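Researcher: Quick test of sequence recovery. Tokens follow.
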């Protein structure tokens, strides 16, 4: 059976080696491993996107975690950020279960697709703007293939800026650059952008992002989708 265009794109993403620093880091982490996962085989490659191809909601994050997506091979899977996010997606009806532990755990998304600005785990969770821009072509191509998407939820300021840069490449330029903030909204071309603090441990442990705050953003997402 011939692979679908979205599947072929994921294959290209997985094979990508265009950023030397990221290639070296993701492979070093996969070789050294964290003690808690020393008996596991790490993915150690660019992490593909995940979700329903006919989704109307696209969630864009920053990059895979070194011992999360870089270990499991699925975005926001196997770390506390993912635990926080998927629990909220389950409460909002976008996921069939509240956890995401490994690629074969039965998780399915409904009307939702998740990707990242950068597909490789970066040192200190900080990709450079150049690395983001190098990966952005994948994001733009993916958006064109996700023909039903109309709402884009950006997890963090890095993702917000990356999505705006990707939309500009796709020919959608706002009159003025909208500012990121938790709960921020903007119309760019045919898309509505929503901003949310990233569900990193730094944000969730300090209370900068609470479960109620994330629920509010996802409820707002539902309202936006209802009008489509």
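Model:
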């Amino acid at each position: 059976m011939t692979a679908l265009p979205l599947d072929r794109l994921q294959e290209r993403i997985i094979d990508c080696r265009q950023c030397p620093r990221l290639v070296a880091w993701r492979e070093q982490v996969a070789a050294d491993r964290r003690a808690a996962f020393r008996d596991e085989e790490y993915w150690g490659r660019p992490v593909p996107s995940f979700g329903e191809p006919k989704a109307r909601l696209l969630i864009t994050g920053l990059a895979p975690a070194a011992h999360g997506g870089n270990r499991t091979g699925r975005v926001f899977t196997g770390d506390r950020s993912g635990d926080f996010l998927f629990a909220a997606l389950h409460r909002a009806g976008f996921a069939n279960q509240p956890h995401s532990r490994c690629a074969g755990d039965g998780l399915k998304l409904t009307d939702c697709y998740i990707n990242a600005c950068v597909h490789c785990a970066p040192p200190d969770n900080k990709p450079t703007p150049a690395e983001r821009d190098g990966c952005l072509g994948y994001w733009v191509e993916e958006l064109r293939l996700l023909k039903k998407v109309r709402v884009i939820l950006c997890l963090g300021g890095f993702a917000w800026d990356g999505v705006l840069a990707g939309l500009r490449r796709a020919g959608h330029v706002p009159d003025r650059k909208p500012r990121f903030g938790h709960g921020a909204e903007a119309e760019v071309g045919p898309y509505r952008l929503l901003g949310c603090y990233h569900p990193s441990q730094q944000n969730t442990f300090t209370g900068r992002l609470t479960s109620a705050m994330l629920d509010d953003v996802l409820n707002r997402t539902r309202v936006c989708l209802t009008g489509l």
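The domain at 5-226 is CATH 3.40.470.10 (Uracil-DNA Glycosylase, subunit E).
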